[in-house]
Design goal:
GTPase that associates with the 50S ribosomal subunit and may have a role during protein synthesis or ribosome biogenesis. Keywords: Coiled coil, Cytoplasm, GTP-binding, Hydrolase, Magnesium, Metal-binding, Nucleotide-binding. Monomer. Associates with the 50S ribosomal subunit. 40% of the residues lie in helices and 20% in strands. It has 14 helices and 15 strands. A hairpin with a 5-residue loop joins strand 14 and strand 15.
Length: 463
């Protein structure tokens, strides 16, 4: 479908505002997507050039983020910004234009899909006469609504407080200097803004202490898993790439999987037995997104350690998304920040999801030629329909347990209790009953299973 090329456009115009409807439906919001024609000073990164994300893709993502917390975008616009204003980011003419849109539509909230300084946010709120949230604030709101576990709530609260700490600006009359001591004898005390910062810092320190306890608990659980060494496979990817759908397909779990940005937040771990019997721990992690706030990366480091410690990482891409290349780059950048090399094919598998959404021609071309200079990965799948899932399981098992080997095992009569294990952990090709009451089994098994068989038989023979 052809998209409009206008820099400024309203995507959905609502009927005339009806008094009293705010409480009955979602919050009315205006979504603004500024597109800067040049990077602000200090944002250039010559060592890590970034792919240019299309304005349409940024617009659609911003609207999706707003709808993820039940906002109703009554007006959305992509705005080209040639000269970012220190006071408001946007030019005075655009600010006045949006102020009129907010007034006419009775919007209660304005989303600006770009980082705003505290001064810019305050000035825009005055000019627009509405609450203003920048991209970071919006993502924090979504995470705050999605958090379900105690750990997730702590992490979001910590990120919120760090964000708020930088937003304390002199915008209220009560921020005058307080006097210290009693009566008129005390000298100047701390300002109210300093007091507020101190209170916030105290809360931050308390949350960090609680999260440190969570981290130690997670380390203990990880140490226990290593004593019974099940390989850990972590699924990562851009938000809405289909991670939870794939997780459910592989594990049979009931993790929430909706066509919504950040539908799930808290990580989930499940044990899965692969086709040839290899047990693994599968981890579904929080989705990544472009310009993920540093507050969130820092707060969620305890959770993201599951990715760092994973034996195998599945980088899941929504290959049907026109912006898939930029999304993949964003994920790879965050992985690099975590110390995971996305280019290490021994540890990271790039899986292309939603292949069912492509027409036959594009699908054949994609699998034959790859995309953006990358050849097709080991597997392209559809987590929704199940296409390619068996092949993916086989690749996972090969990566964590080695290639399949054909071996012959002869069991004595007193070892027949081991037969069930062989059937569960390998593909039995043939079975022969021996005259002494034992059996000979020919089977295909992974290298790990082969080593386990030899170890078990050795213990039995020497027991």
């Amino acid at each position: 479908m052809a998209r409009k090329k206008d820099a400024d456009r309203s995507v959905r115009e609502k009927p005339a505002y009806q008094p009293g409807t705010e409480a009955e439906g979602p919050t009315r919001a205006v979504v603004i997507v500024p597109v800067l024609t040049r990077q602000p000073r200090g944002d250039e990164d010559t060592n890590r050039p970034r792919l240019t994300r299309s304005a349409e893709a940024r617009h659609d993502e911003a609207v999706g983020l707003a709808q993820a917390i039940n906002l109703d975008p009554i007006h959305t616009a992509v705005v080209t910004v040639n000269d970012p204003r220190p006071a408001t980011l946007l030019g005075s003419g655009k600010v006045a234009e949006f102020a009129e849109i907010v007034k006419e539509g009775r919007a209660e909230l304005v989303i600006v899909d770009h980082p705003l300084t505290p001064v810019q946010q305050r000035n825009l709120e005055k000019e627009l006469n509405a609450k203003v949230l920048d991209r970071t604030g919006l993502i924090l709101e979504i995470f705050g609504e999605r958090a379900r576990t105690k750990e997730g709530t702590l992490q979001v609260d910590l990120a919120h407080l760090n964000y708020q700490k930088g937003r304390l600006v002199r915008s209220w009359t009560h921020l005058e200097r307080q006097r210290g001591g009693a009566g008129f004898l005390g000298g100047p005390g701390e300002t109210q803004i300093e007091s507020d910062r101190r209170v916030l810092q105290d809360k931050i320190n308390k949350l960090k202490h609680e999260l440190e306890t969570v981290r130690r608990t997670r380390d203990l659980h990880r140490a226990k898993r290593k004593k019974v060494p099940f390989p850990v496979v972590a699924i990562v990817g851009y938000t809405n790439a289909g991670k939870s759908t794939l997780f459910n397909r592989l594990t049979g779990a009931g993790v929430l999987a909706e066509d919504m940005l950040f539908a799930t937040l808290d990580p989930t771990l499940r044990r899965v037995r692969l086709p040839h019997g290899t047990p693994v721990i599968l981890s579904d992690t929080v989705g990544f997104i472009s310009d993920l706030p540093t507050h969130l990366i820092a707060a969620f480091r305890a959770t993201l350690e599951e990715v760092v410690e994973a034996d195998l990482v599945i980088h899941l891409r929504d290959i049907s998304d026109p912006d898939t290349a930029a999304q993949a780059e964003d994920v790879e950048r965050i992985l690099a920040d975590l110390g995971v090399d996305a280019g290490d094919s021994r540890r990271v598998i790039e899986v292309w999801n939603k292949i069912d959404r492509l027409d036959e021609g594009n699908r054949e071309r994609l699998l034959a030629d790859g995309i953006d200079g990358r050849k097709a990965p080991p597997i392209a799948i559809s987590a929704a329909t199940g296409e390619g899932i068996d092949v993916l399981k086989g690749i996972i098992e090969t990566r964590v347990s080695g290639e399949l080997e054909t071996l012959t095992v002869t069991l004595k009569p007193d070892q027949l209790g081991f037969v069930d294990w062989l059937y569960r952990n390998g593909d039995v090709v043939s079975r022969t009953d021996n005259e002494d009451g034992g059996i000979t089994v020919s089977l295909k098994a992974t290298q790990t299973a082969h080593e386990e068989i030899e170890a078990r038989l050795h213990r039995k023979n020497n027991g």
